Amino acid sequence: MNLFDVIHVQHQFGTIPVLQDIEFQIKEGETFGIIGPNGSGKSTLIRTMSGLLKPSRGKILLNGKSISSYRKRELAKIIAVLEQEGIPPLSFTVEEVVAMGRYPWLKPLSDLSLEDEQIVQTVLEKLGLWNLRTKSVNNLSGGQRQMVSLARAMVQQPRVLILDEPTTFLDIGHQMLVMEHVREWHQSEGISVIMVLHDLNLASQYCNRLLLLDNGHIKSCGEVHDVLQPATISSIYKTEIIMINHPIHQVPQFLLTSK
Amino acid sequence: MEKIIRTKRIIWIGALLALLLMSLVLSVMIGSVHLPFTLTLKILLNHLPLFDLTPTWTLAQDAIVWNLRLPRVFLALVIGAMLSSTGVAFQGILRNPLADPYILGVSVGAAFGAATSILFFRNSSLLGYLTTPLFSFLGALLSLWFVMALAKHHGQRDRETLILAGVVVQSLIGAFLSFLIAISGQQMQEIVFWMMGSLANRSWQDVGMLIPYLASGFFYLSLQKRDLNLISLGESAATHLGMNVEKKKIWVLVVGSLLTGAAVSVVGIIGFVGLIVPHLMRLLVGPDHRILLPISTLAGAIFLLWADTLARSIIPSREIPIGVITAFIGAPFFAYLLKKGLRRGHV
């Protein structure tokens, strides 16, 4: 059984179509990337897959069952989502925000158990946030805040992690930090990862399959080498690029060329 | 972590309860007839079931404490708790630190409902003394719904728009209310009273009528503390963590309107309590609703008790409407919050 079956999905805002005839599958344990230019419908697609948005037409099945038939809490035990904006500037401490990730597992009205607190502590240590745990998140940098977001998602103990442009506001150091931790998590726990990425080079290095969206349609879907064809990329993004092979990882990488 | 929160909560609740009891005794002492501390304490204790003291006081003194001042003190405590807990709930669920039943026009809606019932359903025996609170609640709900619908833009509400929508609805419903007053004739006095807010001339019966509202409203809200924390992460983040945001929002707003409606139906419009108290408490105890909600509720009770004590004692043998006192404190405070928010880009 597939993890996700996206069947004939269409979506429109008002009369403007944003997704048209989207159909693909994702298997358990994949790292699946969704790429495409601004306005191609990536975020809308990921929002329908995380259950936030009901598509105008079509079906999305999670483990063979329609995603809209899951209770919110049940869904939160399966899927965790890392949003682009990360965490708003709150005066809650790092530890308190991360502990909120236990919400779907708590019995109604009960506090965190010792076991829950143990999970929070382990994740804080793993992500190097232990020393920051009593700091308010509004005193953190953007990169640190995204790490807190990731920690909260880990504490949620999902089977699927969905990331919506997780690296957009980060410097390259924090980009790599977030991506490496995600990969490590994927490898050690076998979780499935679905990510919307702007950066084609990151997509190429961290995904095993890609979906390329253009103007609400699927342009191509498959192995990294098949999707990242220089001619296609160049025409969709309407820009001059040079494709080279990554000297260490042997995956396609793109260089931008000024005119 | 959970243990620290529990300890912190117990300490704060204990401290505020002590402050509340002290304020209660002090407030009963103050008035046109001053009563000494020990005498006041003795009269109060004598009314508790376990105590049976030999009276060293006159019957008149007993009546002043038990029949005149104490019901009013309790009324202030109950109303303060209701308005302040509503403020915490509104601010939490709307993620807007300026949300307050008065500023959002919920109070004036409630007053309009109450005025309608006084004018047109005076002798309706169907619901008896519940008629006015019910109308008040409906008025509160109606104006809140109106504000929310008005402020909604592409499925989102930003902070300033919500406040502006509150102003619009307040002016409109305020105009209807003034219209009602103009045509009301002999009930005019009674309705004017709702516009200004006052705790004068109330009895134990009014306190008794409000307590079920406070108890059930506070009980419901205190079950939502974890959800109120969660939604501060943002509506979509809270949804991804398994919270049913839309449903929760409606319920919390309805319960807040019920609390406001009940309060307004007895004492009229008292503004800003739900704005000032939760904000100050947030500075003291932090953003966690598990502590913030009970603490703000207690602090709201104490705040309104002192505001009312001031209202009835600042000018000898004269009453100032309590809404005037809270506005004197609240409006500059609101201005300060607004200014601070504009400078920082968020409040």
From TrEMBL, chain A:
Keyword Transport: yes
Keyword Signal appears in the UniProt entry: no
Gene Ontology molecular functions: ATP binding; ATP hydrolysis activity
Pfam families the record matches: ABC_tran
Domain ABC transporter: 1-240
UniProt keyword annotations, A-Z: ATP-binding, Nucleotide-binding, Translocase, Transport
CDD domains cross-referenced by the UniProt entry: ABC_Iron-Siderophores_B12_Hemin
Name of this chain's protein: Iron complex transport system ATP-binding protein
Organism: Desulfosporosinus lacus DSM 15449
From TrEMBL, chain B:
Subcellular location: Cell membrane
GO cellular component: plasma membrane
Membrane topology term: Multi-pass membrane protein
SUPFAM superfamilies xrefs: ABC transporter involved in vitamin B12 uptake, BtuC (SSF81345)
Keywords attached to this entry: Cell membrane, Membrane, Transmembrane, Transmembrane helix, Transport
Transmembrane residue ranges: 12-35, 73-90, 102-121, 127-150, 162-183, 203-223, 250-277, 289-307, 319-338
GO molecular-function term, one example from the UniProt record: transmembrane transporter activity
BP GO terms, sorted: siderophore-iron import into cell
Domain of life: Bacteria
Family membership: Belongs to the binding-protein-dependent transport system permease family. FecCD subfamily.
Protein name: Iron complex transport system permease protein
